[in-house]
Every structure is written in structure tokens, then in C-alpha cells.
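Record pair follows.
FIRST:
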Amino acid sequence: MVTKEKLLQISRLLAIWLFWPALAVVVWGELKPGGDMPHVWDKLLHFTAYFGLSGLAFVALGAHRRALWGAFGLILLGGVLELLQGMVGRDMSFYDEVANTLGAVTGAGVAWAYLALFGPRRLVGSRAPD
């Protein structure tokens, strides 16, 4: 039987290994030329990409302050990639960055809830046995 601790350990290892290839795919997808698609699907792709990246980063880093900085860094990366799109023949969009931001915040929230559910629990004011 898989314990909560083992599930959390496996999740963290998978998140660490999957984050970098996922980041590469997102960067490639945002900077590749062409690819006009309907407005709603484009925003959904942005939301989903940053939801996944932020969730992976949050699980890999744990529910610590550095995970919040990771989510903020992804939002910043999304903005930089939107600016770079103008250099590769694509149109940058403020609404793409809004979708990126909402995805990153939502992904961090869902990952935080997952870690809270499966992470180790400590009672307030309890001491470790001597």
C-alpha cells in the first residue's frame, strides 16, 4: 500500500523531472511562428500551460515561500515571452498574459491544496519526541 508520504515523494520527483521539458514546450509554443487559432482556444492554452508549470513548480519546491517566487517567476516569464513574440512575427497580447497569470495562480493554489492534503501534519505547539 502506498502511504501519503510515499505518494508525496513520488509526486515531487515527477514534478522535478517533468518541469523542465514542460517549460521547454511552453517556450517553444509561445515563440514558434504562425499558428492562428480562435481567441478562446488560445487563451485556454495559455491558462493550461501556466497552470501546469506552476503546479509542477509548486509541488517540486514544496509549499514554501520559494514556490511562491517560482509562480511569480513564471508570470514574469510569460510577460517576457509575450514581448518576444513581436520579434518572431507573432502578435503579443495583454489577454494572453492575463490567461498566463490566472493559470499560474490557479496552478499554485491547486498544488498547495494537494500538498496540504498529502503533506506531513504537525500539531500546533507540539514537540518532537526527545
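SECOND:
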Amino acid sequence: MRWSALLAAALVLPGCAHSWPDRVAIHPQAGRPYSQAVRVGRVYFFAGKIGVTDSTRALAAGRTAAETRNVLESFRALLAEQGLGFRDVVQATVYLADMADYDEMNRVYAEYFPVDPPARETVGVSGIVSGARIEISFIAVRSGRR
């Protein structure tokens, strides 16, 4: 069975075929067609984040390593707000404006996932919004224990 079919099966409540139970937008962006995350049941889909500082909305100085750290610190806060942590992240997608930055990004990323890291793909792209060097998105699952 493909992972997409497994995910779809996990999101459907028994007896409610083809429904999205408890779909909740988290921090919808006023005037913009997206939310920072969407929770469906116990699964959280986090929108991509770039390496801006939360206070100034400016890109981090220091290229890819600093942007990666800003992205992951921003995610740390957003995950915590939902009662989650990096241990709950099951899948990550990393977009790099230049694949030559892979090792630099990976060194910082590894600090946040030292054990049992999530599944991840890294994709080279021709451009990221606001001239960023990196964008990361996550899928997280709240365990049944919490």
C-alpha cells in the first residue's frame, strides 16, 4: 500500500468514510491563502518556512547555516505551541536554492534530529520566496499518549 493511501486511511474516522475529521487551520494568514499549519485529527501539516527572524522578518545573515537554524527555531516554537516537539516530526521536505549548500544545511539540521530523524527529501529549486536559500516543511503526528 502506498504511503498516501496509509495516510488517507489514518485520517478517516471509523464510520465517516471520505471525511476530514477535526480539520483545524492553525494561524491562518490574514489576506493570504494559507495557514502556518493544518491539523487533521492527530496529523499536523506544517507549511514551509524560510529563515527569517520572527522579530524583524529579515533573512538571517550568514547564508544557509543561519537560515536553517532560524527555520528550525521557528518550528521549535510552533511545534511547542501545539504540544509537539521535533520527536513528533515524521516527514520533512527541504528546498535548497543551491544544492552546493546541502552539507551546510545538513550539519545544522542534524543538531535538531540527532536520533531517529524523520523521513526527508531535499530538493534543489530555482528560487525561493524573498531570495531565501532554504525552505523547510514538516508533517508531524501527535502520539496517542498525549
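COMMENT: The two ends are 28 Å apart (CA to CA).
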